Amino acid sequence: MAQWACVSAANLSCQATIVNTQKQRNSPGCDAFSFKGSEFMAQSCRFSSPQAVYRRPRNGVCPLKVVCVDYPRPDLDSTANFLEAAYFSSTFRASPRPTKPLKVVIAGAGLAGLATAKYLADAGHQPILLEARDVLGGKVAAWKDSDGDWYETGLHIFFGAYPNIQNLFGELGINDRLQWKEHSMIFAMPNKPGEFSRFDFPEVLPAPINGIWAILKNNEMLTWPEKIKFAIGLLPAILGGQAYVEAQDGLSVKDWMRKQGIPDRVTTEVFIAMSKALNFINPDELSMQCILIALNRFLQEKHGSKMAFLDGSPPERLCAPIVDHIQSLGGEVRTNSRIQKIDLNNDGTVKSFVLNNGSVIEADAYVFATPVDILKLLLPENWKEMPYFKKLEKLVGVPVINVHIW
Ligand SMILES: Cc1cc2nc3c(=O)[nH]c(=O)nc-3n(C[C@H](O)[C@H](O)[C@H](O)COP(=O)(O)OP(=O)(O)OC[C@H]3O[C@@H](n4cnc5c(N)ncnc54)[C@H](O)[C@@H]3O)c2cc1C
């Protein structure tokens, strides 16, 4: 009997509303965007050394400075979350080779589909990864324009608190492709255009004190009473752990803030940006569980909220090594292969995937790793009433338009 699974890559995102910059201590009020000066950046970025600085005068007050700086990879590998992720993935490689490897067809070559195929190949199975488009990566896909510049679907941040993806980079031997930034979260201030507010996490302090310190030291966005209420409001999340986090799913971000006595101004100043960065929706629409999952990791791991960027286009710098790995173990990755229909056996199990070019692919097991809206469209009629699939009705995709400003 064919088996069925549905996977999705974690969505702990952080977009342009939070920018990572390095402040020039000797020039108050001026920010400098920092990049690691790797060989790749030196080619693609005209300001490749700390000496190369671009200044843009603004109202005669404050020049914008752009400086490239190296930050070392933080020590993530000894955290409990990282060790757990590394252990789980090592079990795929260490498990006895299957006597009859399973042929597994996976729909969608975003990071979830690519990772599924990689770990199935590690476990000795034969994945066939089918991607509808002519580019790999899904939401991390990118395209070259006529000038040779890359357009990404969206800016992607790789946080220290992402144990699975950090472990995957290590397994692929590409840790050096992540460019680590200064440990700060910097918010554009909604009521003061062009000004930024910093949350600086001191290197010398352990978690969660470094996070609490970052909140208490912020003077631009929050007043002292707001900071204290905010820090106290976060205590149950710090102390209560995962069980507390999951129990908050019924509350929106806005309602949770009010319940904790955190003033609405904190929600407006900080959590509109954070809600939109994490899920592209507002604090009155987003479950507090989503914010707390991220915040809890950020507060409990010293380097959890440290950010890294990939040193080039994700299809080339991240997807390609995963594909090489899959293929080296006998798996296949095919682009331009859109699944158009899920064909069923009489007993309701999957018989095959039918592709847009008419070809039919049969396998021992099938995985769907596409966006939820696609799965809902392709769901066979007689599955729709099954309790498992009925839950999909409540999952709705959020449309996002990304504007690249050069
Ligand atoms: C603008 C933006 C910024 C983001 N920033 C961050 C960030 O900073 N940090 C972070 O961690 N996350 C971020 N995310 C979220 C992250 O990109 C996603 O969670 C992750 O990439 C989703 O991967 P996935 O494999 O689950 O799905 P997808 O990437 O959506 O992959 C699904 C794949 O399925 C393919 N497909 C669709 N239909 C079919 C079909 N019928 N047959 C075959 N294939 C099909 C699609 O073409 C696609 O390639 C961001 C997302 C966006 C949109």
TrEMBL record:
So which cofactors does this thing need? FAD
Pfam families associated with the record: Amino_oxidase
Q: Which organism is it from?
A: Malus baccata
Q: What is the recorded membrane topology of this protein?
A: Peripheral membrane protein
EC no. given is 1.3.5.5
Q: Where does it mainly reside?
A: plastid
The record's annotation in PANTHER family points to: 15-CIS-PHYTOENE DESATURASE, CHLOROPLASTIC_CHROMOPLASTIC, PROTOPORPHYRINOGEN OXIDASE
Give GO terms for biological process.
Answer: carotenoid biosynthetic process
**Name this protein carries in UniProt:** Phytoene dehydrogenase
> What GO MF annotations does this protein's record show?
phytoene dehydrogenase activity
Subunit structure and binding partners: Homotetramer.
Q: Where is the Amine oxidase domain?
A: 111-406
Which SUPFAM superfamilies does this UniProt record tie to the protein?
FAD/NAD(P)-binding domain
